Amino acid sequence: MQADFSRRTFDSLKHFSAVLAQQGRVQLDADANEQAAILLHQLRTTVADLLGPAAVPAGEPGFRLHPVLDQRKITDLRISAGRLYVDGLLVENDRATRYWSQPEGYLDQEKDTLPETGPFVVYLRVWERLITALQDPAIREIALGDPGPDTAARAKVVWQVAWCAGQNADDFADFRHSLNPEPGLLAAQAKHPGDTDACHLPPEARFRGQENQLYRVEVHTGGRAWTDSAPTKESGETLHGATFKWSRENASVVFPIVSVSGATVTLGTLGRDSKLDLDVGDWVELLDDAAVIRAADDLPAKRRPKPAPALRRVVAIDPADRLVTLDGELDERCGPGSDADLHPFLRRWDHLAGDSKDGAVPLVENTWIDLEDGVQVRFEAPPRTSAEVAAGQPGTYRRGDYWQIPARTVTGDVEWPRDDDGPRPVPPHGVEYHYAVLGVVGEDGTVTLPPDSFEPLFRQGPNPTAPAPEEPSPPDDSPKPSTEIDSPPDPPDPVVFAAEMSTAHSPETGSAAPARSPETGSSAPSPKPSTGSAASPPTLALSASPPKPGPSNGSSSASATATLAPPVEVSFPAPEPVHPPTRTVTEPSTSDPETTSDNPPAPSTAPETTAMTHPTGPLGDHLTSWLRTVVPGLWSALVAWLVSLGLPGSVTDAVAGLGNQVIVPLVLAVVYALLRGLEAQMPPWLTRILLGSNRPPSYAETGADRHALG
């Protein structure tokens, strides 16, 4: 990225896990940037290992294609909103869009037209782009001045939907290989001027070794390396090979464009100082958002490529009006600078001789090319593995590929990896493009081969709470052995509970209660909840079992066993009683009051039991009993004190010795009896205030209690 960096230090082959700051040390931009690169590398590698090269989440499947047909001709593509992971990078489409209106498309109405009929492959191209305060003014801190200095830059994930000929994934793989079949390499070194006096360097050597620099060598026109021994200016629409440009400031010297008129450009600023300004003779490039995005052109590498947009040379500068005159007329209608919303700017490059048609330097392999002040670069083809390729075939270079070369004054050299043979040729440091097939559009407009989808690793399971009982349905004449209860539609994978009903036979008659039939859905009547206690019919006990595989489209299932127990005494407490409940003792019943069958179950011979029902609350029984004793006592003491304040002095003197022995217990008894007597008429909130709790405590039943109950 073309920002003002000191150097690039991240190397995945070193397997660093973190950057650790030390006290009292200088903080460098390279350290912070390496920490961010380490985290991104770990995160994206993990996601790619889990999801593969491309996948969409099942809940947010983004980038689904829907062709738009007009008289059976494809005119556009609908692209759904959602997310897609490509090589671990999160790619987001915030809202549904179309091929011609995609946010980062900037398509050419003639060159990017879709085929009228299939088949063809639609794919996604993803990379990261640099965003500075020129593209997003919100990045600049206005408190530092208006306009003030910029601070940090941003990296943005950019995506584009494109297409290529083909009808399957193999065709797309061949297309990708054709873009850069033999990626070229570059090596760098610092060549000292020999016996030349350092104080009398030639004037064309603009880098005099007084400052550290980060050189950037970038491919301007992509294609195969130049094969002519003596490159000259080209005529026509093609070049004899790829070209490159270079900058000593990592191409970070840029100037915002205000307007364009013919060959004159009005700039917002001419730079902060003489080191970062413009001079006559400089090579510049006019860019905006559309031009930067369209640099990723996906053109197959050719020996005679079509030139990229030509670089311009500065021929005059008017500092007062910030006017810059270039060596050629500019397109005022659709070129960079014609639309202020696209954030146009002018970028300075530092090479002096542009020998090719596009204003850049011809890219020649296997020879050292001088940049300035002894810094040299050498392009090489990748290692050959076959005899056919080894027969003089040059390497391929893609437009926008770049290498960064730190030069340091302390060592008088460049920082570059070396081996026994000298500087080691390395592949480009960027731009790194990522691709994913979105689908293959057939002749009839159908889309096949969409990206794979994945389910979340962890999903919230069904609510373990048992569902509310349904209203009883009329009983079936013949009892059925089991029933199935379908879960609600959310979550989408239903969980089916199979309840196996076993009949409970009476010891005397052996009669059984009917169960719900899986065919008809009928079931035996079930008792309704009540606030008091009553004899209950046979109860249903559920026990969960592990899921069993079955032909239910991969959905999980669970089963529960239901067993009919003999009639026992049960109680159904009210959820929030208004009046304080009373302790009740119920006798067991041998008949079901809601049974509509002609043959009710036989009386049970189980021993009779008693049930004491009390509503449950958030407080325990011990704390409830303590509160219902202490709180009325406190109210009684308050009443006794208030009463004593209102009595005449003669009365208080006469009963002064009886306060603790007579008056306080008497008042306590009167107040407590009054509160308990009025408890049934008081609302719950007043009961809590005066008695400490609106429910009486329940006590464990003892043997003496059972004996007293008979």
TrEMBL record:
Residues 464-476 have a biased composition (Pro residues). Residues 533-567, 586-613 have a biased composition (Low complexity). Residues 519-532 have a biased composition (Polar residues). InterPro entries: DUF6519. This is DUF6519 domain-containing protein. Residues 446-617 are annotated as: Disordered.
